Amino acid sequence: MKLFRYLAFATAFVSVCSLLQSKPGKGDDVWIPLFNSKDLSGWTANENKDSCKVEDGQIVLFGPRSHLFYTGDANGGSFTDFELKLEVMTTKGSNSGVYFHTKYQKKGWPNKGYEAQVNNTHGDPKKTGGLYGVKDNFKAPAKDGEWFDYHIIVKGKRIQLKINGKTITDYTEPDGLKRPNRQLDKGTFCLQAHDPKSKVFFRNIRVKPGKG
Predict the structure, then answer these.
(1) Which DSSP state fits 145?
(2) Are 68 and 190 in contact (CB under 8 A)?
(3) Distance CA 184, CA 196 (A)
(4) In the chain, how many domains are there?
(5) Is 9 domain-assigned?
(6) 182: domain CATH number?
(7) pLDDT (tens digit, 9 = 90+) per residue, 124-182?
(8) Domain span at residue 75?
(9) CA end-to-end span of the chain
(10) How far apart are CA 74 and CA 96, in angstroms?
(11) Which of 8, 61, 83, 108 is the most buried (most CB within 10 A)?
């Protein structure tokens, strides 16, 4: 009987410890989901809100320009060092982007943070996997109509953009850089509905905050 009680207590103790260790929080080595696959809880669209919808467990961006900002509670809603992973699918001729270190604004193109480009066949020559206007990529590493993995890593002054596990961009901000609107600081994430002819899908969005 004593052995049974000891084992029961030990099992309960381990379960509690595991639960405490798995609780998401700043600096924890865990992936935190940012999208619940049901609705836009934790996300806020600015202008043209109807351009941002959830269908079949996916975020669908399609319509006049709009930007969908993460405004949820994960990591206090602000990230410095992090790893962001998401799955993306473009349609023919579509353009979009994933902003980071940005902040909510009521309208217009986000004027703070970096944009990780999403574009495989749109007329803009700057393609998926590039750091828009900073270190561009001119050859699409993915195809329209197929889901691809986008992995964005920020650590210190270094930014890495990976598509399906392959590094497309590896950029380190130079010392003494004075480019306040396009410079690493801290902030949230944003998904872009670029124009009425661009239709792009996002799913499985999760983040691992850095320990710094």
Answers:
(1) T
(2) yes
(3) 30
(4) 1
(5) no
(6) 2.60.120.560
(7) 999 999 999 999 999 999 999 999 999 999 999 999 999 999 999 999 999 999 999 99
(8) 30-209
(9) 48
(10) 24
(11) 61
